Predict the 3D structure of the following.
Amino acid sequence: MLILPRDILEKIITHSRGALPNEACGLIAGHADGGVKKCEAVYLLKNADESPEHFSISSEEQFSAVADMRKHGFMLLGNFHSHPTTPPRPSEEDIRLAFDCSLSYMILSLSEAEPVLKSFIIDKNEHSVIEETVEYTL
Ligand SMILES: [Zn+2]
């Protein structure tokens, strides 16, 4: 389960709308206790691909975000990217690029009037995609 503060959700939505028509991306960090991940920080990053169908995070941005997490005692919990015109489901490429089955892979769909965020645990070796419960807090 992922606990996500509403203000972080709002930041992800604003960042993703600002990146349209391209996909947006970023990282989330916080603490994990047992199966519960508590998101406490979001890093809104550039989509190095500048594409409506793909995203990648530059290694420079990845390194500086991870350095900032260390400074604050956070761990990397997962990442997010947006789907400007498609539902919030991992594409074949999203599954292929999922490198860590302990991370949360969040997808924000902007294809409908109301944005929809879903989070997934992806094990590409098993080709399994499991939707993770997201609980919103103030
Ligand atoms: Zn995707």
Notes: The pocket of zinc ion is lined by residues 81, 83, 91, 94, 107 (CB under 6 Å). Strands lie at 2-5, 25-33, 36-45, 75-83, 104-109, 116-123, 128-132, 134-137.
